[in-house]
Amino acid sequence: MLGRSIALSTFLLALGAAAPASPPAALDVENVTHSLNVSSCPGYALESLRETNTGLTAALSLVGPACNAFGRDITNLTIEVTYETITRLHVKIYDTDEQQFSIPESVISRPQAPTSALRNSSDLEFHYDTLPFAFWITRRSEPDAFPLFDTRLASLPSTPIPPNNATDNSTAFDGFPLVFEDQYLQLTSALPLDANVYGLGEAVSSSGLRRDVSQNGTIQTFWARDIQDPLDENVYGSHPIYLEHRYNQTTQKSQSHGVFLLSSSGADVLLRTPPSSNVSLVQYRMLGGILDFYLFSGPSPKSVVEQYGALIGLPTWQPAWGFGFHLCRWGYLDINETRAQVDNMRAANIPLEVMWNDIDVFHSLRDFTSDPVSFPGDEMRVFIQNLTKNHQHYIPILDAAVAKQVNSTDLYYPYIEGAKQDVFMENPDGTEYVGQVWPGYTVFPDWFANNTQQWWTQGLKNWSDSGVEYSGIWLDMNEASSFCDGSCGSNANLSITPPQVLPGDPGDLITDYPEGYNSTLSGPSGNITVNGTSTYVRRAVEVAPPLNRRGVGAGKQSGVDLNTPPYAIHNGFGRLSIHTIAPNATHAGGYAELDVHNMWGLMEEKTTHKALSDILPGKRPFIISRSTFASSGKWTGHWLGDNFSKWEYMRLSIQGILQFQIFQIPFVGADTCGFIGNTDEELCNRWMQLSAFTPFYRNHNQRGAISQEPYRWDSVANASRTAISIRYSLLPYWYTLVVEQFLIGSDILVTPVLTPNASTVDGVFPGRGNVTWRDWYTHNVLNTTSGGNVTLSAPLGHINVHIRDGSVILTHSEPAYTIEETRQGPYSLLVSQTSDGHVFGTAYIDDGISSPPGPSKTLAFSVTAGQVKITAHGAFDVKQKLQVITVLGTKKPTVVKMGGESKDGWEYIEAQEKLVVKGINLDLNEDATIVWKSDV
User: Fold this and answer.
1) What are the tens digits of pLDDT across the range 50-102?
2) Does 3.20.20.80 match the CATH number of domain 320-553+574-732?
3) Domain Glycosyl hydrolase family 31 C-terminal, which positions (predicted)?
4) Which residues are catalytic?
5) Residue 494 in contact with residue 440, Cβ under 8 Å?
């Protein structure tokens, strides 16, 4: 059966992925009542140019009658072009009066302006036409090659693009002039035909990691929403960055570059190839804001990701324990059931690092509480302190919405104090914006308000002091989600919680199973055998008050329609207000939700990160969040949301994890075994193995589904123990990758089974020239041809893992039950030599918890034929010794020496050309050399 190879997290390998076997369905054609073609808009002329050593500034003026396509044309614009570094170019086009919204530096800080002249030394060059204004950007080294970004498109045909899920008042046309209006911006750039484009998320894409640029094309919508992982629609986060990879036939070089639009505006980004065109296109359609582009020259995929991180901020330091195995479910109804999972995991000898609770922990489903009956504070304190004694950790959930006080006798202090300190979002008339989530009617923190940070920190501190002594926080529903369509209204009957049917309750029984499930063949899975299917959807109580036009927008515009902008982006829910906060809700400073909606999760993450730094001083804050935006990685990790217990979604999790490496949120993973629906033994077996090789590793499922803890099935338990053992032994490898601030590993290739009832898997083993791959378990050389499929044996319980030659990997010799216990054990070194014997690598070691990071040790491993040289740098004292060195791909020696002295205790295995030197007891704080040779 076919499978897929993944090099986690080798994004470089993903760039070579083939196009999908069958194209996605064509975009839906719908009736369009608005017939305006924005190609009739006049465009702009460039004038008043002023050039400097770091760039240029100029005015852009509308050159004809305003077309007012989806708003009012803005007559006077300013363009600023800045060569910020030799690899980063900044192109900013904004309204000269600065009335349009732009992201404040208090939310996402930007680098200081360049102080040196980079215009003539930059890897990138900016070019422009004055009338009509257009610009293009090239590589200095390839001035005649296809530009990296090119808006000169007046000669292309202006053919309509049918809208997808658009409302009746929308239209979608290929109009190529620059359009800059108070409620609509449009800019189009040419791409090479059938370009290799990656990114533009968050997306669960039917075309794979590589985005579809065919005639059918892609519409990626940026509007954060609470939805269960649909294909090809907008989901939880917004990341308007793409990486394009090109192969130059003339120079025979592959190069990558990146394009980032710093905007939180609701938007559509289209990728497509017009009929009979010799180029593809990327088109931005935004509901407001400004055009704030950054170009990154790469030229490797790795360097593009690094350059993006240098702009928005590098990922937060993760505590070492975060790389352990995490267990959660919605439906651990009390502390006894939660404690039982910890006990059962230990009894089964399946490592458990972190125990989680979902909303079951809350009292009346309210934030910052624990139920006094099912999760009493004193018992919670004892339970969590026992976890701590065993080097384990506890994480609870925290939802975005805060319950509104029902009446004067309802003493819910997070609301009372928040209202007193004016930290909640408001309606345009100044009343509280009221939503509805799990606890009933709710309000939403305003992250722009002056007192919110102090109030949020105090709420988290009080919660910890009450007995919920967490090690980290799980942020959910922070798109933000609300079950009202618009504000429920400040006069709602707050003593009545609208009825909700929850999964597992009568009326919503969980009866769905994975593809290929057969109850007679699945073994002791504990599966129920109910016919029929059920797809769980969080049900919104439809409360639809009038949606009013707000007189003043975020940019102080008058008369703009915030709730139903004239251009309807392809939001999967339709109107922007559905299942979230309405766009006309207001924030401190006059900001409208329409303009800052996509940053809601980011601002909660930033506020929570700062709060945990105060509450747990000196420790690295651990946060996992659902909604993310550009720079979220500075504050949080991410999980891929409410996925399905399907083989398809296990496969889709791979592209999701790789996608977030581009977004500089490397600590990411999926709900292992699936969240929605029932899993089964085979799927959970394969998924537990796969997720052991992803950065964030958590098993989590929904209320009402069958239990899926890995100890439930013997085969899953065995597979989990094996996979977690490999994961824990590789902790130094993972840790070193994260310290490098991106996850682009090149040494380990994982080939999981992604289809049911399979006992083999096909994998592609990349690498040009004479690249050797060796089996992780046996160290046997794999007989493979670069780029060709290889069929591998994959019985249930086995996941294929291979290591590339030219790698040197520091490992833990004795994986233990927890990360801390594993870290206290000895080290081993695995060297897989190239044919010439040369290998180089590094490993990073510190205490795994301190924030800011304290002393560290960086080990450099330099291998030549017959020698390993270890060089130590840094003040951290590594207590554990290096006990074993394994060298693959070497001739049999006659002597092994360390420090000039002959070393006993080594063996050589001819079949694998493997030298194993044991009992070294090497101090990793000191330099050392190990030599082996075939003559004395």
Assistant:
1) 999 899 999 999 999 999 999 999 999 999 999 999 999 999 999 999 999 99
2) yes
3) 740-809
4) 476, 479, 642
5) yes
